[in-house]
Structure formats: C-alpha cells, structure tokens
Give the backbone structure.
Amino acid sequence: MQKSDFERMTLPKSPGVYFFRDGRRRILYIGKATNLRARVRSYFAKDIRESRGALIEKMVNDAKTLDWQETDSVLEALILEANLIKKYQPPANTDNKDNKSFNYLVITQEDFPRVLIVRGRELFTKWSDADIKYLFGPFPQGGVLKDALKIVRKIFPFRDRCAPASPARAKSKPNAVARTKNKPCFNAQIGLCPGVCSGAISKREYARIMRNIVLFFKGKKSKLITQLRKEMQIRAQKEAFEQAATLRNQIFALEHINDAHLIGEAFRASSGGNVFSRIEAYDVAHISETARVGVMVVLEDGEPAKREYRKFIIQTKAQGDTAALYEIMTRRFDNEWQLPKLIVVDGGTAQINVAKRVLKEHGYEIQVVGVVKDDKHRPKEIRGNRMITRTYEKQILLANAEAHRFAIKFHRNKLRKKLLNNSI
C-alpha cells in the first residue's frame, strides 16, 4: 500500500480499529488507535522498519486496502481489537509471536468469580478449562489492559484476590446457611470490591456484576446500557432509590467512558494518592552534537520501571536538543506502547512546546512539564500546570534525574564504542 493511497483516504481523528487487507480482502493486520488518522499515518514513515520491524514493513507493502471501525472510546477500541484478533488471527499480529507472551482477561469458575489479568505462559501451564468461566484476549499490551481494567472496575467493582466470607450455620434457622462477616478488604473500603470478603453482597447480586463485565468485554455496550436502564426503572418503581442511583451512575460512566475524570467523580475510587500511575521522562545527551542519543524512562506508581526504558540513536541532521527531542517523541508515539499520564522533558518552554506538538500530531492530550536546570545542571524550576508541578514534584524530579542518568550512561557507552572503532 502506498502513502498516496492513504493520503486519499478521509480517516477520522477518533478512536477505533483499523484493518490492513491484501488484494483478496484477507485481513493482514488489525490495530487499535486513539486517533485513527494519526495512527495509520505512522505506517508510512521512512523508518518503519526500524520503528516497527520487518514483518510490519512487509505487511504494509503487501496491503492493498484499508478499512476501519470507529468506537466511542479508546477502551472499547482495545476490547474490539482483542476480539477481532482472536476471530481472524491476522498473520502480522500473530506471526513471530508466542501466545505465551500475550495477556488474557480471566473470569474464574467460582461462586464469586475473580477477574484477573493472566500472562499466556501462566494460563497455558497452570490453568485448566475447569478453572475458567470466561476468557478474553489475547491482549498484546498488558499495561494498557491493566489501565483499562482499572476503569472498568470503577464502574463495576469486582473481586480479584480477597477470599469470600466463609459460610456459617444461622442460629435462628438450623437448616439455613448464613455468611460469616469478616473485615472488608482494602479494595472494598475504597469501593473497588463489592464486599465479597465481608459478606456484604449475595451470590445473585454479584452474578449481575459479572454479567455486566462479560457483556462489556464482548463489545456489547449498547445491550449492557439497555439492560441497566431497565433495571434502574424497576429499582425506582420499587423505591429502591439508592440502588437506582448506582445504576444511573454506571450508565452515565459507560456513556462518557472517554472522560475518566467523570468516572472518578461518579464512583470516588482511589487514584493511589499523589502518584501518577505512569510518568515518562525524556532526555538528550551529546558532546557538541556528536554521538547524539536520547532516552525515555518510566515511573510506574512512583517507582522506576526499568523494563519500560527505551534508547534512541538520533538520526536527524537538524541540530539542537529540541530537534532531537522531536525525533525521539515522534518515534515513541509511532509505537502503540502504554500511554503515560504525565510527560517530563528536560528543559523549559521550547522543549515543552516540542512535546505538545508531537502529542497534537498524534492526537493525544497528555500533560507536559519541563524541568529547568541552573548552570550546574541542578533543578531550578518546574514549568507546567501549577497544581501538577506542586502535587507531583517528587515524582517529576525523580523521573527527570533518572532520565539524565540513563541518557549519560547510554551516551558514554556509545562514545566509548565509537572511540574503540576509530582506534582499530
């Protein structure tokens, strides 16, 4: 497929799923996107082999047509992508990949089922069919699935690790079985578990929650909302107004699922205190424009996640840190890696503007802050949203310092190799 073919298309800038097809209309590859147009455009970059690999480069060359399907939210695009990959098994999605590396959503076969993210290597070796009631996936990116499940859990609280309240004989009715109430687990206290561990919910009520989650992950949001509306009307007619209000909030959250802050307000779920779930920091290192490199480091829940770190050898001939930063971030957002909640750049207004430009080109809205240094390269000021810079100062400075350390180490190694090669 040629870039000119793409340029003639009028892809929307909304979330959705796209399909590359060959000349016989067979699906070669399925992907999801926050911004369909920006995402598909990335496949026609000059460095597609370096950024996505030889398999994807071949897929684009073999493709003759492109189709797409819009969704109401990125979360629904994620679910639709997984369901379609499972159905069609496109070669560019599955070739050269071991199913054991994928992630799956498992709903267990229990009276009060758990909802868990399970790695393929564990699923295929430690789980049996008798353990699983529902299985969704594969999901290529575990981090994205984890974030998605956090949103779903705010709407439909569920059990993951806690044990159900133990059954006990009721004193008033010898033949009846009551549930021994235990102290609620932490998730129950913050509204993410309906109280399975404390006996606060019946098996029948919990089954309704599971039904709702199953419908959502099957991609049947419209049917789910219709059922919730019917239940809300029934509860209201019975004057069970508190239960009706809960259903109303669930419907509202589903209809506004792109607006994460609205979901948070509706369900008052904990966001983990003053820690962003994912922060990405970028830095550039060089000596007089030689051996130019850049890095991306990641903090997850306030701690360095070194498995997520990335290195970039700067390829652009344009000089200056802003040109290098533009290249790094463009290459980063051409990949469907987990999205950060906050971006930290090393520098001031110029670097912040470059980061915002890349985000705009890719269709993302993510907060950006910059760490300005003094002449001794010590943090002097954090620029950006004042509430964010004050609240998350410790995490911002940690991310910036870690990016600087990682960039310097990478630069020194590259420079050392260059010197050794020149001396041979």
